[in-house]
């Protein structure tokens, strides 16, 4: 039942990133069903006045100055009056919502939904998340004003705003935005061959073949509502940069006293990494936790030092790869490397559209007061259960994919507890140095599962 | 001391053992309670846990009533398993997260018991992708199975269907049952709806709504290891 693919029917942030400097997410409640339907209809009317127009996937080379997209929660679909016969065709995880799936996602302790600040403390009121992308704050403000001009339709519950750092850096100091799944149907000049197979369109859109041979996800009915739509896990992820840097300090000090340290970092090799042996060990640990040096160099290609000359994207995890089995990027996407769940290679891939929030941490000027900083992440895939949740619970927080990491959490984003956490630094001989006491560096501070409807679906909902 | 109790005390204490009382309790009192205070069957499968080690060697206990409740029906079910034996082995090998799978016929039910690692939905989904045809051959013989096969085209519905037939795992601690019932109703632990005196009644009503359950979540003689950890340790590849 593969539908004919039409990029103009797909929301524009799904298949390609806009690469704007700023983003603002508006968490909205539907105030009046009829007015909200009118709002949706107006957002696809083609008249660029009043309600902002939804940016489509067919923007080609002429990227708009500002982009506007929406996602609806299950409660949002209900509030619009979507018929029950349609609602029940949506997947369970979306119906239950992100906060009900907390255990699967590692949202426990300080990250538990009960601890989330407003507006995420009352998830049932979040009906629609509208996202504005632009380079200037004034543009964000202008689009927001237009979007909220009709106070009868939508009520603003809260906003979250993010801003790019130079050179695609993110908090923790790594370079991000290096790879994304590539689709045969979509030409994206910024994405070139990364050695990974092209992702079938069904990875990210409902109604197309998926990476699982012969397996298709249920398209919410009717087709006008479900086809060309997809699901998004929107996450507000607080990053403890100070805690992360302190952990690197402590670990570097401990390693200096470790009898195996010369195998980890041969005498003299530090010169290629940093100005001192201790500083080099800090960076070596940071690189191993992530699977990339902070400049983006993959350990799979250059395990001894960062190398601006190597390809950042084209690599795989061969048996003798020196990227740790438990490194963040390897856990999220094991590429073609051996994993326990043989059918799952490439099947849990996600499109990620994220941007940092909060000011960058400057070690020269430590925070005087508590400042929250982190990532506003969109993790997009046609099946939340088979992609985002499967990755989160079995790979990030159980390590089921490789017996050598089973029972440990992802060192950077996992739900770590200092009492039980561990991470193995590989040595050339095949031995390892086990690091312990990793605290949890990333805490969830909000989020929602949303359905990203196609343009046809927005019109369908507008005409209910 | 018995001598302290008068005839009425002795009568009341002995009531549960009297045939008339047993009859009234089973046939009238419990059905009346169940009607008066309806109880939803608690969901099946292992209790979710945030501790990675708790999510290894999980138990699945499927009880699936056969459509054909005769010796012929049971023989057909036995035949479906036998015909797919090679595929089952191939599936276990490729899915990689399964320790054991057992098929048992009890009464007019085909039961599938297995021990697997990690999340239930991932386990079933990977199985569908690997040997969906075996599921189809078995589920076809089961009441209501026709709605969810072929499982490859109904993956989400099939997973929910299987989950609905997975036995509730009664917690080892008495308060666990009360906590599960509160969670099902959306109550928090602080709601006060956790009176221990009510435990026998709650358990009886739950077993009325949910006649087949697993007692505990399976007892292990050693800590949980994944199938791949065991295979690696034994040097047989994973």
Characterise the protein shown here.
The complex is a heterodimer of chains A (464) and B (238). Chain A has 464 residues and is an alpha+beta fold. Chain A has 2 domains: 7-238 and 447-462, no CATH class; 239-345 and 402-446, no CATH class. Chain A has 14 helices and 10 strands. Chain A has helices spanning 12-15, 33-43, 74-79, 84-87, 92-96, 102-105, 137-147, 223-226, 241-256, 261-264, 277-290, 328-332, 384-396, 455-462; strands at 22-30, 67-72, 128-134, 154-163, 230-239, 351-357, 374-381, 422-426, 432-436, 442-452. Chain A has a 4-stranded antiparallel sheet. A 4-stranded antiparallel sheet of chain A has the order 6-7-5-10. A two-stranded antiparallel ribbon of chain A has the order 8-9. The longest helix of chain A is centred in the middle third of the chain and has 16 residues, at 241-256. Chain A is globular and about 70 Å long. The model of chain A has no long low-confidence stretch (mean pLDDT 94). By secondary structure, chain B is of the alpha+beta class. Among the domains of chain B are: 52-167, Alpha-Beta Plaits, CATH 3.30.70; 170-211, no CATH class. Chain B contains 9 helices and 5 strands, in the order ααβααββααβααβα. Chain B has helices at residues 7-14, 19-36, 71-83, 85-95, 120-139, 155-165, 174-185, 199-209, 227-233, and strands at residues 58-65, 98-106, 109-116, 168-170, 213-215. In chain B, the strands form 2 sheets. Chain B has a 3-stranded antiparallel sheet. Chain B has a two-stranded parallel sheet with strand order 4-5. In chain B, a hairpin with a 2-residue loop joins strand 2 and strand 3. Chain B is globular, with a radius of gyration of 22 Å. The model of chain B has no long low-confidence stretch (mean pLDDT 89). The A-B interface holds A 91-92, 103-104, 106, 108, 212-218, 339-344, 347, 383, 385-386, 389-390, 393-394, 397-400, 402-404, 406-409, 415, 420 and B 48-53, 55-56, 94-97, 117-119, 121-122, 125-126, 128-130, 132, 152-157, 159-160, 225-229, 231-233, 238.
